[in-house]
Every structure is written in C-alpha cells, then in structure tokens.
Amino acid sequence: MTTREQGLRRVGLVTAALVAASVAGAAGFGVLARAETAGAEPATSSSGTASSSEGSSSGTASSSSSEDDSSSSEDDSSAPSVTSSSGNAHASSGGS
Amino acid sequence: MATPVGSGAYAAEWPVWSTTARLVVTDAGALGEARAIVDADLAAVDLAASRFRADSEVSRLHIAGGRPLRVSPLLAELVEVALAAARRTGGDVDPTLGAALVALGYDRDFGQVSQLSGADDAQAPTGCGTTPGPRPHPPTAERHALALLTDRGRRLRVGVAPVAPAVAGWRRVRLDGRTLTVPPDVLLDLGATAKAHAADRCAARVAGTLGTGVLVSLGGDIATAGPAPDGGWKVLVRDRPGDPACTVAIPAGAAVATSSTASRRWRHGGRAMHHVLDPRTCRPATPVWRSATVAARRAVAANTLTTAALVRGTAAVDWLRARGLPARLVAADGSVTTLGGWPDGSAGGAR
Q1: Range of the domain at B339
Q2: Handedness of CA B247, B250, B252, B257 (dihedral sign)
C-alpha cells in the first residue's frame, strides 16, 4: 500500500520528469528552429536585392499589393501637377 | 536642324531602338550639343543592356551561365533600377522575361520582328535598330544563350511558351555592388525600365551640362530637366491614331510615360502578341487597358507604374489611386479613366 509521502514523491518525480522533458523539448525545438532558419538563409539571400520582408508569392495569379515596396525614399512619390493644355505639343506620349 | 516648337522651344527627332527619340530644348543654340550628349548616352545604354547585340554586356552575362560577373557601373545602375521596379510592383515589372519574349517570337529588334511575323502593329517603326534589314537568325550571343537554356534541360525551349517559375526570376538575380549574378535559365530584358531611365539620364545630363531646359522623349517615355517653356511642357497623350487624345502641361522636372497593349504587336504561332507580359503566366497581359499613362518626377517611376497597371488589369485602378500620381487609363472599349489629379476632359490636340 502506498503511503501519502510515497505518493507525493511519485507525483514530484513525475512532475520533475515532465518539466525536464518539456525543457529538453523546447531546447531541441529551438535548436531545430535555428537550424531551419540557418538552412533558409541562403534561399532568402539568393533573392538578390529583394528586401527580406518579401514573400515568395510569385507564380500565383494574385497581384498582392502587400508585396509592394511603396516606401520610395526618392521624390518619385511626389505628384507633379498636370493641367489641361491646348495648342501644339512639345512631344507626344504614346505606347512604348 | 532645330525645328521651332511653339514659343521658346526647339526640337530634333530621330529613330532609335525601333521607336522615336525626340529632343526639345529651350535654348536653340544648345540643340546640337544636347543631341551629342543624348546620342552618347543612348549608345552607352545600348552597349550595356541590349539583348539584340552580341557584344552587349547583357549578352555576355547570358553566356556566363550563372557565374558572377563584374559589370560596368552603367549596367549595374540599370539592373538596380530594374530590380527596384520589380520590388515596387510586387514583381509585375520583371526584368527577367527575356526568355519568355524570345519564346513568343520577340527575339530581335522589334522592327525586324514586325517585318518577319506580319505584325499587327501597322504603326510600328521599322528599320531603326542596330542592324537594319531582315535578320534570319538571332545574333551569336543570343543563339548561344538559347543553346544554354535548351542544352541544360531548363524549363525553356525555343518557340515554346515558358511556364512561370516557382520563384520569380528577378528574385534570383543578385547584384552586389558591380558584381551581377544571373541564373543560367534567366535572360534579362531591361527594356521596360532601361528606356525610361535613359530618358531621365539624358535629360539630367543635358540640363546639367548645358544649362538649358530640356525634354527627352524615347518612344513616349518623357523626362524633363531644367527650366520649362512658359506654360510648362505640353504633351500630347495618345497611344495610336484614332485613340482618345488629350494635351496636358507638366511642370519643369516632371515626367510622363505611356505603356500600351495596342502598340508593339506582332503575330506568333497564329496568335496576336504584345510586348507587355504578365510575369505570372509569361504570356501577354490580358488587354483590359489599351494604354496607361502616368505623370511622375522621373520617367522610370512613371513607366514602372504604367507597365504594372497593364499587368494588373482591373485592379490597376485602386492600385494607381493609392499611389496618388496623376494617371490616365484607356480601356479596351476606348473609355477613359483619370486618377490622381489628371485633368478630366483635357483638350485634344496635335503635335
């Protein structure tokens, strides 16, 4: 027959074993995760000058604007004023 | 010879890259030197980036078979601009569609493509390329590049429309300073951005060197620099004869570009083709729009958006609106949509 103290010791051992297992598992997962990340690095860097935040949705039919890099640091983003005009044009803009 | 254009502007026009170059300056005396500057810069861009010349750097890259090459500062600049355009558009403007264009028959200067294939584009300029006249075979470098593609069992074969790769080509191009690595199954085609960027470069160089106001138009990709004539630079926006037209004025330093699914057309395998490919299908983009026009501070920025708009189809309206730049879309049925402050009902006109 199991005494109360024996029961508590067993519970303690089981708890300690579970804690140790979970710690080991977490550590192992972390190692694996790091290894996975390291393994992915060359593929990420092989995208050339593409920013690391870009996904690889290419090849799909969608044109997700979430990939767009709209953070132009140049003055491209400032809109020039375009006004209606008439008379002879200096140049024409057609399909190219 | 300087041709007066309106008040205080003088123009010269000549064929280049199967299209028309137009140079307008505000100082008539500067036109000759300005032309020399533009000619020199366009020649340098052609030598760096033409996929139709065996001696271009791009052709040598293809022969390198994926090995890193140290390239000229100019080609590095052009590739950097092209990759930036790809990033800005989520890959809609992809500089690695050269093989797809070759597979669809656009394997030589467009003037020769239209001559040999019976182009749909009756307005396409002809005989303006680096080698006038019909050319029965691609140049040596191109044949070499295509042989590399086929011999290595890659996804591409001559005359067969390629399948879009799992990872877009532009993501696999690596540029570290001046060291450029292009995967062996990728042929660069920088045409979408190089022409517009060349217009920006030329305008900046002419204004910087000669101090004149200048407009440089390369096939409708228009860049300006220096002071503008009174009332601004007037630009007729019209893709093809009979299309809806308008004349607008842009201020000094502004740029305009138009891309089209109706121009630069040819036939291949019994089908009508145009030169704006959807990178996701490696086929001509569905012609929801006949043309797209955008005004920006640089021609390459404008051209990037117009090309992407044609690829995006109906989604282009919201996408362009979010960019906030003046834009004009002409639908397949001829209806016009204006965005971002582009004037409604701008006057028609002629140059």
Answers
A1: 231-351
A2: negative
